Each structure stands twice: as structure tokens, then as C-alpha cells.
């Protein structure tokens, strides 16, 4: 498994199993934020599992695409729903970091 997918899996397990600390990072304790954290955790685990079955270059390109789309959608959500801006921006930041990590891994 590629390093970025190990990180993605660890973040996925954390968000899926312990969403309250993730919500605390976003400084937003609403039930909806914890549910969104669980959903995102499941998506990260699924993405890591699919990436593990692809060639590293293909996995990196897929990861960049998925995470860029996620980051852009979270920026749009932050603008559309200002009350949810903090968790949306946190999610966009994490997705951007994962996209950069995937891009760097494909450049090697």
C-alpha cells in the first residue's frame, strides 16, 4: 500500500470510528458534522482499498482527481452555507493535502 493510502486509511478509520474528535477539530459538535465525518471516513477507506488494487501511477492520478473534486465541493459548501464553513474548510484542506501527496507520489 502506498504511503498516502496508509495515511488515508488511518484518517478513514479515525473519522469512521471516532467522529467526535474530528468534529472537535472542526470546532463543530453538531450531529450532522459527526455523520459527515463518518461518511468521509468510509469514503477514504473505500478509496484506499481501490487504490491498493491499481498500479501506483493510476492510483495517484485517481487520488488527485477525487481529492481535488472533494476540495472544490467543500469550498463551494463553505460559501453556500456559512454556518458550516469551518468543517467544510477543514475537509477541503485535508483533501488538498492528500491531492498534493498523491501528485508528489506520481511524480517519482
Describe this protein's structure.
The protein is mainly α. Helix content is 85%, strand content 0%. The protein has five helices and no strands. α1 packs across α2, α3 packs antiparallel against α4 (56-80) and α4 (56-80) runs antiparallel to α5. 33% of the residues are buried.
Q: Keywords, please?
A:
single chain, 108 residues, mainly alpha, globular
Order of helices and strands: HHHHH
Distance between the termini: 16 Å
Structural class: mainly alpha
Question: Number of helical runs?
Answer: 5
Number of strands: 0
Overall mean pLDDT: 93
Main sheet overview: none
Helix content: over 70%
Instruction: Give the uncertain stretches in residue-range form.
Output: none
Compact overview of the structure:
The chain has five helices and no strands. The protein has helices at 3-17, 19-25, 31-52, 56-80, 85-107.
